[in-house]
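Take a look at this chain, tokens included, and explain the fold to me:
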Amino acid sequence: MILPSQISVSFPTAWQLTKPYWYSKNRWKDRVLLVTIVGLALGQVYISVLINKWNAAFYDTLQNKNLPQFMHQLGVFSILAALFIASAVYSQYFTQMLQIRWRRWMTTSYQNAWLSGHAYYRLQVIYKSTDNPDQRIADDIDGFISSTLSLGIGLLSSVVTLVSFVAILWGLSGTLGFDIDGYHIAIPGYMVWAALLYAIIGTWLTHKIGRPLVKLNYDQQRFEANFRYSMVRLRENVENIAFYKGEPVEKELLGERFSHILRNWWQIMKKQKQLNWFTSGYGQIAIIFPVMVAAPRYFAGAIQLGGLMQTASAFGSVQGSMSWLINVYPQFANWKATTDRLNDFTAAIRLSNNDNLRCKITVRTHGAASLIINNLTLTLPGGAPLVTHFNLELKPGDRLLLRGHSGSGKTTLLRALAGLWPYGEGEISLPANAEIMFVPQKPYLPVISMREIACYPHLPGEYDDGAIAEALTAVGLETLASHLDASDNWPQNLSPGEQQKIAFARVLLHQPDVVLLDEASSSLDEAAEARLYNILTTRLAGAIIISAGHRNTLKAWHLQEKFLQCATAAMQP
């Protein structure tokens, strides 16, 4: 049995993905479960060995027309079959148990890694090279675990089956002797060598034919995820699309994404058809091949019918174990693609975390109540300067307005203050235990109750309903204040201005020490903007407030103003 280079390359990668689970906190329970599954698989192999021996006795009773022994052998078979069925049932049951436990641990692990250190943000906003992380966590982990267990147990069973039956087949084969030009040639255990040669040729041809399926399956998973994501994006932006009358463009975009699925699927079909032609023919020939090879000894009277059937059965077991890759190649190709996608995702998360290690922006806390920025330089991921040598000191109650042309680095500066932007150098000193709240231009509104919406990202239990209703009423959302239990698709059912009002209500409710507002009132009219800033500066008089915006009306609500100019643009002639 030969293993293509792809398998040897995949095993270390797969081990790096699986190793943390087998050394996790609950590793002993899971190891016992795995040992139980392996034990049941080995038990099935042992039962197969007993059934192989039973074949000889059973068919000999038929040839000898021995009815009492025939009935006895039927009883023996019933016991063996019952044991095999029981082991098969519990093997699947325990495998599914291990699969869901493993998936729970791995999903939690990847979710934590994805949501830690702002990796999810950087993968989506900065790198943009890792497609559909949601699909990799939701689908690829499940596919990887189920395929790893299936292929791993199958490979182990094949190896044990090979070891168990090769000795039996060697003994049953006898010696094949023939003369060539006066030389007598004797081949002991010739059926073992025939099975080996048959499996080697079949495995090599299967790999040559089916190798492109690995990349095709990788692409198929990516195309399917892209198509699903496009439909989710359409659902999330139905109103904007309707206003634009963008249905023709959306149809074109969805059609293009789906065409990738169709084209790749046709290639998979064609390659799978070629592989099926070969594997089906290989399997059919394998049925009669051992009988043909053993037939000369049977017709020579060296073995009886039972011996012939036992030999054919042992040959089938040896040849089948040697041909393991041929039988599972489509599944292996899909497993290889899934393993590669998870490995790429893991590498991307690790790259994001390395950004934190390489970050030269020092964020520290100090005993004072002020926010101090000392010689801060922000760059783009490629190294181009954006904001250079920025210095600032704000005390409680100070309010700063950041202005500048689009692309001058206003939002990036706020990202750095919120700990989201790692590129650059300098020092940011924050008050110890200070709560910092970032208010973006488009607030995030999950599909949950209005009570949970208003409290986000805190838990509803931290505030009583009276305080939540009062905050919503203060920003002009009296209707929502009286429907705290209502759950809806808020991004679609609330106007951009109403969504921004909810963001201000969150600020009033949370009472943060530092508020970072990025075009937070851009969807409101000037009167509504003035009302909200008046409430904000009154109720959070001791907070440090930094706003980024273009409107001149914002000047009235801030005590300081800084105009940013993109350093890269300033260097251009």
User: Anything to note?
Assistant: The mean pLDDT is 83. The two ends are 68 Å apart (CA to CA). The CA atoms of residues 365 and 433 lie 8 Å apart. The chain has 19 helices and eleven strands.
